[in-house]
Amino acid sequence: MTCEIAIMNTRGIALAADSAVSLGDGEKVYHSSDKLFPLAGTAPVAVMTYGCDALMGVPWEIVIADYSSQLGNRQFRTLGEYADDFFMHVEDSRLMFPTEIQTGRFLSHARRIWSKYYAGPWREIMANPPKRMKANRARRIDHLLKLLHADHKIWEKYPPINRAANFFYDELEELGDVSLSNADDIMDEIEKDLCELEEELFSTPDLPFGSQLPEDLREGLRTTLRHFLLRGAFGGGDDSCIVFAGMGTGEIFPSVLHYRVGTMMNNRLKLLTLDEDHITPKITANILPFAQRKMIDLIIEGVHPDLKSRLPDLMEQCHPPRRKKNRPKDEWEDVSPMSEWETTPTDRFRALVDSEAMEKHSAPIMAAVAALSRQDLAEMAESLVHFSRFRMKFLVNERDTVGGPIDVAVLSKADGFIWVKRKRISC
Q1: Which CATH number covers residue 264?
Q2: Distance CA 204, CA 183 (A)
């Protein structure tokens, strides 16, 4: 994990990032990683990365350097155009991301998903099946189908990825009503590999499927892979987040664009827009923490996020049980806040906490940020990351995943990209 921050007002934007990178399950942490990069030379555009430190096995610093070298002196009118051009460059790079690497990564995700959600739970039941399944092949297959259908309902709750319209589907309205021809083409290209994976994961000595599963199971498994490619659900430990910050030639004030990036298949990234923020004449300041953000939120809102999330539950515990409407008095019972249409005391309390945090803490801080010089923005950004690093260092119940030197940069319309503080590399 890491701690990164963007602080911006009408004068410019300051970025700060620590240097910690954790390996494995966070047991080993190094403090020499680069996470803040200029994107377009001295132009006021930069990127920060966190999560996995590589894209499809290629370190982010190489991916960004490769893009910057081919960008040359070209400039774009908006920050969004820089981001689009960057992602198109990544998708077009056969040198960094050859087809065989893309296919291998996709198959590893297929193995992970099918094993974790279907083959694993199914084999556990088959090891000691209920009596009605022991001698009934159809019921065993039906149980696996039920696992698939239940999981598909979960996948469908996730939003479509950004580029589904240009990737698999002819148009993007309802995912179930549009053409899947391009997705089917991709499945056809690796059909042999998928069949081998199916046989490995799902065939058992007492229920051999031979070279193929029943057709309805095969289609269900492929539907899962379509959902994986088309829905904003990530996993497997190789997804990253990337933050674009700055302004294009046609923009006066800075913006921040926040994306999540996953695997790549058929030369298209799995890409999801998480958020975007813009400075305008009406919105003159903003503080945007990324990754480890709890201590920064504490400073901005005046209450720790964990405590804030617990306050409504604590308040609910202090109230006596409430009676549902039109029930006799002897039928008192606990009522969930979501079980009645009217606003509950817990809802009102939550709204009051949010209002108090905004009025007494966030608004005064934003008013001060709006008046800061670019140098002050940089000092504030570094201080907030340092504060998060200090907290993580001394908490016994948290891993020390924020640390190392803090890189700081300032971007402005007048001066472009300027390093304020950058760690030295010694050989």
Answers
A1: 3.60.20.10
A2: 29
